[in-house]
C-alpha cells in the first residue's frame, strides 16, 4: 500500500484569526499535498537557546521560514502578515547521498522535501559561518531559519552555469539576506 506525499510545509494562522482565515486557506491549498493549513498553538520565544552538548541530542529538526505570501489568494494577500509558512526538514536519509548539488536544486524545485534536507546538511556550516560573520554571534543564529527559507525560496531561480558554482550563488543569497537584515 503506497501512500501519497505528506505535508512538509505548514501555513500557520494565529488563533485570533482562525475564524476568518482557516476555512478559506484550507480551501485554497486543498489541492497541494505538500502544504497543510494549521492554527498556531505553540508559544515560545524567537530567541535561540544555547544548549550544552548533552542537551543538543534532543534538538528539533531545522525549520525553514518560507516566504510563500505570493501563493495566497488575492483576497487574503493583504493579510499575509498574519500568516506564516514553515517547512520542517525531514530526517536525513540516504536517498540523495550521491545526488549532485545541481540535481538537488532541481529536486527541491520539484517539491522533494528529502532534497531540501540533504542540501541543508551539505551547506549549513557554510551558511552559519557566513551569517555569523555578517550578523554577529547573536543575530546570526537567530536568522538561520529565515535564511534557510530564503535559500529554499530562491533555489527556484538557481540554474547551473559552467562559470558559476552553486556555492557562489549560495553566498550571494546569504549576503543579500544579511544586508537586508542589517538595513532594517
Question: Layout of SSEs?
Answer:
Elements: E1 9-13, H1 18-28, E2 35-39, E3 63-66, H2 74-77, E4 84-88, H3 101-109, H4 113-142, H5 144-154, H6 166-183
Parallel strand pairs: 1-2
Antiparallel strand pairs: 1-4, 3-4
TL;DR?
The protein is an alpha+beta fold.
Tell me the Rg in angstroms. Answer: 17 Å
State the share of residues found in helices, binned by percent: 40-55%
Q: Major β-sheet, in short?
A: 4 strands, mixed
Provide the spatial order of strands within the biggest beta sheet: 2-1-4-3
Q: Mean of the pLDDT scores?
A: 86
Provide the CATH superfamily of the largest domain: RNA polymerase sigma factor, region 2, helix turn helix motif
Question: Could you state the order of secondary-structure elements as H and E?
Answer: EHEEHEHHHH
Percent strand: 5-15%
What separation lies between the terminal Cα atoms?
A: 51 Å
Count the domains.
2
Q: Which structural class matches the secondary elements? A: alpha+beta
Number of strands: 4
User: What is the architecture of the largest domain at the second tier of CATH?
Assistant: Orthogonal Bundle
Verbal overview:
- This protein has 184 residues and is of the alpha+beta class.
- It folds into 2 domains: 7-42 and 54-88, no CATH class; 95-184, Orthogonal Bundle (Rna Polymerase Sigma Factor, Chain: A).
- 45% of the residues lie in helices and 10% in strands.
- The protein is built from 6 helices and 4 strands.
- Helix 1 (18-28) links the parallel strand 1 and strand 2.
- The longest helix has 30 residues, at 113-142.
- It is globular, with a radius of gyration of 17 Å.
- The model is unreliable at 51-56 (pLDDT under 50).
Amino acid at each position: 500500500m503506497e501512500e501519497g506525499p505528506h505535508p512538509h510545509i505548514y501555513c500557520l494562522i494565529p488563533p485570533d484569526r482562525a475564524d476568518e482565515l482557516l476555512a478559506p486557506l484550507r480551501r485554497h491549498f486543498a489541492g497541494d499535498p505538500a502544504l497543510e493549513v494549521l492554527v498556531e498553538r505553540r508559544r515560545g520565544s524567537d530567541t535561540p537557546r544555547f544548549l550544552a552538548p548533552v542537551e543538543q541530542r534532543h534538538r528539533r529538526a531545522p525549520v525553514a521560514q518560507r516566504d510563500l505570501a505570493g501563493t495566497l489568494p488575492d483576497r487574503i494577500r493583504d493579510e499575509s502578515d498574519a500568516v506564516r509558512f514553515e517547512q520542517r526538514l525531514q530526517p536525513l536519509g540516504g536517498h540523495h547521498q550521491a545526488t549532485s548539488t545541481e540535481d538537488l536544486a532541481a529536486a527541491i524545485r520539484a517539491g522533494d522535501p528529502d532534497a531540501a534536507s540533504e542540501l541543508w546538511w551539505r551547506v549549513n556550516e557554510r551558511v552559519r559561518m557566513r551569517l555569523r560573520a555578517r550578523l554577529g554571534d547573536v543575530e546570526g543564529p537567530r536568522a538561520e531559519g529565515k535564511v534557510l527559507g530564503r535559500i529554499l525560496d530562491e533555489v527556484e531561480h538557481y540554474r547551473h552555469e559552467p562559470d558559476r558554482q552553486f556555492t557562489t550563488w549560495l553566498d550571494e543569497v546569504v549576503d543579500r539576506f544579511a544586508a537586508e537584515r542589517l538595513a532594517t
